[in-house]
Design brief:
Low-confidence stretches: none
Shape: globular
Radius of gyration: 19 Å
Distance between the termini: 68 Å
Number of strands: 6
Helix content: 25-40%
Largest sheet: 6 strands, antiparallel
Number of helices: 6
Length: 189
């Protein structure tokens, strides 16, 4: 009977832990007064130590803000975030494809205050909300979510921790899929 009692107790504790996890999401908001224009400015940010996985997720958005004006600088920032596995030509093309037909507004949509109605103009200072859920972390992997003012649900990105340095690196960007278009160009608005 002792073994059965221990098993039932263990299962009860496991169930309680899973239920607690199921209702626990974590959100962190990062605030930036300006957007970095160069890789040097980017690396000078306190979040650029890459030890806070949520901060790395936020930095991906900052790196993409340069894509339209200085693609090479944006790629350099993204490669810094990707660490030992830099962007390849196919990855660069995938990002470029997401901005075709003037859809660069997708980037600004992830800043707090940016909505279709204000043409995705972010509030100042720039704020980025990053969220995890109970299933976000597995071993050295994380799937985190950014919130867009033009989407009904948060959008994912995947990161990986390098145990030897304790740093988190960008693996996959999935948050640049289509969102609601700005009201000013929406013929149905």
């Amino acid at each position: 009977m002792d073994i059965v009692s221990e098993l039932l107790s263990g299962l009860g504790n496991l169930f309680k832990k899973k239920v607690t996890q199921a209702v626990t999401n974590k959100t962190k908001t990062y605030t930036f007064n300006t957007l970095p224009r160069t890789l040097a400015e980017f690396k000078a940010l306190p979040e650029a130590a890459l030890t806070d996985v949520y901060a790395v997720a936020a930095l991906t958005l900052l790196a993409l803000t340069r894509w339209q004006d200085d693609r090479d600088e944006s790629i350099a920032m993204l490669n810094y975030l990707k660490g030992p596995d830099p962007l390849n030509p196919m990855g660069i093309q995938q990002i470029s494809d997401r901005f075709m037909d003037g859809k660069f507004y997708k980037v600004n949509s992830f800043f707090e205050g940016a909505t279709p109605e204000n043409q995705y103009t972010p509030a100042m200072p720039y704020r980025i909300k990053v969220t995890s859920n109970p299933y976000s972390f597995s071993e050295n992997w994380a799937t985190l979510y950014l919130h867009s003012g033009g989407a009904d649900s948060p959008r994912p990105l995947k990161l990986r921790k390098k145990p030897s340095t304790g740093q988190w690196f960008l693996v996959e960007l999935h948050y640049l899929s289509d969102i609601r278009i700005p009201t000013a160009i929406d013929k149905w608005a």
